[in-house]
């Protein structure tokens, strides 16, 4: 065993339909959220258990969401995977 782990299948870029909110779920368990023209508006760590995601912002804010049929539902937002 090499000690390397594969990135979670949900790692990648997730965006709202209008492109205003963008979540980069990084393979190392960190995320970077952009809002509008503000890059890195929020950053922190995340953990995915099954189809549920928990976020812990570096400022202490917490949030969660669920992946359903390839769509991320998070804090009243609907995000789609960006190819």
Low-pLDDT sequence parts: none
Overall structural class, as computed from helix and strand content, comes to mainly beta
Q: How many structurally independent domains?
A: 1
Task: Enter the CATH topology name.
Answer: Lipocalin
The rounded Rg comes to 13 Å
Estimate the strand proportion.
over 45%
- Roughly how many Å apart are the termini? 31 Å
User: H/E element string?
Assistant: EEEEEEEE
By DSSP, the count of extended strands is 8
CATH architecture: Beta Barrel
CATH superfamily: Uncharacterised protein family Atu4866
Mean pLDDT: 92
Name the overall outline. globular
Percentage of residues in helical conformation: under 10%
Task: Strand order, main sheet: write it out.
Answer: 1-2-3-4-5-6-7-8
* Total helical elements: 0
Largest sheet: 8 strands, antiparallel, barrel
Q: What's the level 1 CATH class?
A: Mainly Beta
Quick recap:
With 83 residues, this protein is mainly beta. It has no helices and 8 strands. It is 0% helix and 60% strand.
Description:
The protein has about 80 residues and is mainly β. The chain has a single domain (about 10-80), classed as Lipocalin (Beta Barrel). Helix content is about 0%, strand content about 60%. An 8-stranded antiparallel barrel has the order 1-2-3-4-5-6-7-8. The mean pLDDT is about 90.
List its traits.
83 residues; mainly beta; Lipocalin; 0% helix; 60% strand; globular
List the helices and strands and how they pair.
Elements lengths: L11 E5 L4 E5 L4 E6 L2 E12 L2 E6 L4 E7 L2 E4 L2 E5 L2
């Amino acid at each position: 065993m090499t000690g390397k782990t594969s990135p979670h299948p949900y790692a990648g870029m997730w965006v709202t339909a209008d492109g205003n909110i963008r979540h980069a779920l990084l393979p190392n368990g960190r995320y970077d959220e952009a809002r509008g023209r503000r890059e890195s508006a929020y950053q922190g760590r995340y953990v995915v258990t099954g189809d549920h995601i928990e976020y812990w912002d570096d400022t202490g804010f917490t949030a969660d969401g669920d992946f359903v049929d390839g769509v991320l539902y998070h804090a009243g937002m609907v995000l789609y995977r960006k190819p």
